[in-house]
């Protein structure tokens, strides 16, 4: 929603384009300087931070809707994206304490009617995605006032049940680390074995064996050794590696045992 008119159309006639009572909420994790962060939104109508999300269009699958939402919020396409869990507890989207009705009227120029398509009980499908913060460009729309990366251990009290959605998404991501090489979007095109080991330690929350983990990546054919070293002054220069594109795509499709 890039304008007041688009926002009004959504609130008044959105049921013509979107599926009422079915939404997507995305936990978009970012990695930078050996720290894992979560992208949160703050809009002009809500009193609390929340996950990026939105309703599913009638012409979209759940995966397509999640991909659209992550692209709209990060400016990046083709991110690794996985469904975490469905959330449908009664009352989960109650907005009495979080919704600023006065701000809504001032911004939109009308009041939401009791029979609005937006006010029914809504089931949301939680997804997660991961990206390199350096390459992401969080985007604000007409009703958003802030978009910010929060360290994973400093997440505030969120709107709706989004703290639970974020936790389940993080747990799902850490399980998927064992089966999919999902770190490619978080590293530079060439990297050292120490850098990829540290990435997976931050994502998994575990300490990995400095020899066994890199050796397993090599044995699986996921990495290619480059004839290039990282310059680090007087110390022994580590060798650069890159992902083997064919092996990486196959592992994403078929899965494997990684860590």
From TrEMBL:
CDD domains the record matches: NUDIX_NadM_like
Superkingdom of the source species: Bacteria
Domain named Nudix hydrolase: residues: 19-174
Family matches, as InterPro entries: NUDIX_hydrolase-like_dom_sf (IPR015797), NUDIX_hydrolase_dom (IPR000086), WH-like_DNA-bd_sf (IPR036388), WH_DNA-bd_sf (IPR036390), WHD_NrtR (IPR054105)
Family matches, as PROSITE patterns: NUDIX (PS51462)
PANTHER family noted in UniProt: ADP-RIBOSE PYROPHOSPHATASE, SLR1690 PROTEIN
UniProt protein name: Nudix hydrolase domain-containing protein
């Amino acid at each position: 929603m890039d304008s007041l008119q688009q926002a009004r159309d959504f609130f008044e006639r959105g049921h013509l384009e979107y599926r009422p009572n079915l939404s997507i909420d995305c936990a978009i994790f970012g990695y930078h300087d050996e720290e894992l962060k979560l992208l949160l939104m703050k809009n002009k109508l809500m009193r609390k931070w929340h996950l990026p999300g939105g309703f599913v269009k009638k012409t979209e699958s759940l995966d397509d809707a999640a991909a659209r939402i992550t692209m709209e919020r990060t400016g990046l396409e083709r991110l690794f994206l996985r469904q975490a869990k469905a959330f449908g507890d009664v009352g989960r989207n109650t907005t009495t304490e979080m919704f600023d009705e006065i701000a809504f009227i001032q911004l939109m120029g009308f009041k939401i009617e009791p029979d609005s398509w937006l006010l029914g009980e809504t089931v949301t499908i939680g997804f997660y995605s991961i990206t390199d913060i350096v390459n992401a460009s969080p985007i604000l729309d007409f009703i958003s006032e802030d978009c910010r990366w929060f360290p994973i251990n400093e997440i505030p009290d969120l709107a709706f049940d989004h703290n639970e959605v974020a936790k389940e998404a993080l747990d799902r991501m850490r399980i998927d680390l064992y089966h999919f090489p999902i770190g490619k979007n978080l590293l530079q095109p060439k990297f050292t074995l120490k850098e990829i080991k540290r990435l997976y330690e931050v994502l998994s929350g575990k300490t990995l064996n400095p020899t066994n983990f890199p050796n397993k990546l090599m044995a699986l054919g996921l990495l290619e050794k480059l004839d290039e070293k990282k310059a680090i002054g007087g110390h022994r220069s580590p060798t650069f590696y890159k992902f083997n594109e064919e092996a990486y795509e196959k592992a994403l499709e078929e899965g494997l045992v990684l860590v």
